[in-house]
Amino acid sequence: FMRPFLRMLESGSFFTRMVGIMLRVLAALIVLGSLASIFKAGKFMFTLPTSGIMGGIIYVLFFVLAIYAVAHTVIIRAGNIEAQKDEDHFILPVASILTRLAGEAYATYVALTAVGGGIFVWFTGESIGKIMDPIPFLFPATQKPNFMGGIELILIGVLLATGAIIASYVIAELVTALSRATSYRQQQSGHSTGPRHITEHNTRSSVG
Fold first, then answer.
1. Cα–Cα distance between 107 and 208 in angstroms, integer?
2. Which residues, 6 or more positions from 45, have their beta carbon under 8 angstroms from its beta carbon?
3. Which of 67, 133, 175, 189 could form a disulfide with 34 if both were Cys (CB 3.0 to 4.6 A apart)?
4. Distance between CA atoms of residues 182 and 113, nearest Å
5. DSSP of 149-197, one letter per residue?
6. Nearest to residue 69, comparing CAs of 161, 156, 160, 134?
7. Can you tell me the distance from the alpha carbon of 25 to that of 27, in angstroms, rounded to the nearest whole number?
8. Confidence band, pLDDT 50/70/90 cuts, at residue 102
9. Alpha-carbon distance 84 to 69, whole Å?
């Protein structure tokens, strides 16, 4: 059964459709996986004094907005990938979109959650680790539960988000340029070396 499956993977329409479906499943898992964090944050929020509950509510609102933005971005990029029509050269364009998606998802989550976390620190005087447990990898956590700690959290979060966007877009543009250069050279030479053509060439060679 592997031979037909591998042959389908060499089809641009099948590959992009498969990646699009996987991304939509990922978006659903992101939303479902975030529910535990939301419930945990809500449980901790109601242990705060009255003056701190507002900070907890604001944090949860920003967290929910971040999860929605990430999931929506994943769905949008899934549509972009499925819209790829080139049957011969589809791997690099898909890689370029996935690279952009990685930067966009990270930047969106970190920026919004850091802003909400900074406001939480201001209202409660507690560290972000109290309501965000465990703290995600590569998240700009600060151990200063004061006004300056909140500012530091927001600034670092925004800077990391900006850096992630710039880095991912630069890499994506390099991948796109490589894809265009490869396609142009193949057009100039009058033949294609895409996955389908390579397979057909190998099949003819084995038959011969």
1. 53
2. 53, 56, 57, 59, 60, 131
3. 67
4. 40
5. HHHHHHHHHHHHHHHHHHHHHHHHHHHHHHHHHHHHHHHHHT---SHHH
6. 161
7. 5
8. very high
9. 23
In three-state secondary structure terms, 36 is helix
Give the pair of three-digit tokens for residue 139.
Answer: 């998240």
Lowest average pLDDT, out of 20-24, 57-61, 130-134, 151-155, goes to 130-134
What contacts 128, CB < 8 A, 6 or more positions away?
Answer: 117, 120, 121, 135, 141, 142, 153
Tell me which amino acid residue 124 is: T
Of 147, 167, 153, 78, the C-alpha closest to 117 is: 153
Q: Is the pTM of this model over 0.85?
A: no
Locate 17 and state its tokens: 């459709």
Q: Would you put residue 125 in left (φ > 0), alpha (ψ -120 to 50) or beta?
A: left
Q: How sure is the predictor about 114, in pLDDT bands with cuts at 50, 70 and 90?
A: very high
Looking at per-residue confidence, does 208 or 162 come out higher? 162
How confident is the model over 47-59, as pLDDT tens digits?
888 888 898 899 9
Q: List all residues 6 or more positions away from 22 whose beta carbon is below 8 Å from its beta carbon.
A: none
The token pair at 140 is 């700009």
- Residue ranges of E strands in the chain: none
